[in-house]
Write a structure and sequence with these properties.
Blueprint: E1 8-13, H1 28-43, E2 47-52, H2 60-65, H3 70-94, E3 99-103, E4 112-113, H4 116-124, E5 128-132, H5 142-152, E6 157-162, E7 167-168, E8 180-181, E9 183-184, H6 186-191, H7 199-207, E10 212-216, H8 222-227, E11 234-236
Parallel strand pairs: 1-2, 1-6, 2-5, 3-4, 3-5, 6-10, 9-11
Antiparallel strand pairs: 7-8, 10-11
Length: 240
């Protein structure tokens, strides 16, 4: 990837990132750490949209596997993402960021409804837009929501912030001989089931030539480096 400064990015955060060292829930210190970095990126002039998962509170697919109605479980998962969005909003504003939480279904007492043109206007004014409640539809993950919002908002890339430093051919936590990719194609991600994002999100990004950059969120300075176009982590792009 040639070094290029992005003007607008979508950052995808897992719900687990908000739990820190805990097994579940929200850990304010962990949130403060990465929100400080996101605030620094916003201060540099890069426009930021955020999509946050809800797995630290409730995971709809897991509940469905245990007998809960899938649609009902997914709606509960969407509500979990709203809780996470409000926590991140609080942390970002403590670091001087102007923010707006926008939800895929109406929750007017705590957030704005997601309206694409309004979201674009917030971004143009330098506000961090936190997109919550997924797509508003069951059977779609927050990965799919991230790809959808990134395309709607004309983002230059999806920045997938994780606890590992890129994409590997197998789980580096389990295998010492795991090999890290510097670059990988969308088709390779799908065929090798590399687990970058779900197949719907990868297909949407592939069809619209939207690069995905996977990097370690918790290494200080990485967020600024990756949004400035430095070769951090793994980039998923092209290949067809």
């Amino acid at each position: 990837m040639d070094k290029v400064r992005f003007s607008r990015v979508l950052i995808k955060l897992s719900g687990e990132a908000l739990a820190g060292e805990q097994q579940f829930g929200i850990e304010p210190q962990a949130i403060d750490q990465f929100c400080k970095e996101i605030a620094a990126v916003a201060a540099s002039g890069i426009q930021i949209a955020l999509v946050i998962g809800g797995g630290n509170i409730f995971r709809g697919l897991s509940a469905s596997a245990k007998g809960m109605d899938r649609a009902q479980a997914d709606y509960m998962g969407m509500l979990a993402t709203v809780m996470n969005a409000l926590a991140v909003q609080d942390a970002l504003e403590k670091h001087g960021c102007q923010t707006r939480v926008m939800t895929a279904f109406s929750m007017q007492e705590v957030a704005e409804p997601y309206i694409r043109r309004r979201a674009e206007r917030h971004l143009e004014k330098g506000r961090v837009v936190i997109c919550a409640a997924g797509t508003g539809n069951p059977y779609f993950t927050t990965d799919s929501a991230a790809a959808l919002r990134a395309l709607e908002l004309k983002c230059d890339a999806i920045i997938k912030a994780t606890k590992v430093d890129g994409v590997y051919d197998k789980d580096p936590a389990k295998y010492d001989d795991a090999v890290k990719y510097d670059t990988v194609t969308f088709l390779e991600v799908l065929e090798k089931r590399l687990g970058v994002m779900d197949s719907t999100a990868i297909s949407m990004a592939r069809d619209n030539n939207l690069p995905i950059i996977v990097f370690n969120l918790f290494k200080e300075g990485n967020m600024l480096k990756v949004t400035a176009g430095e070769k951090i982590g793994t980039i998923v792009q092209g290949g067809d």
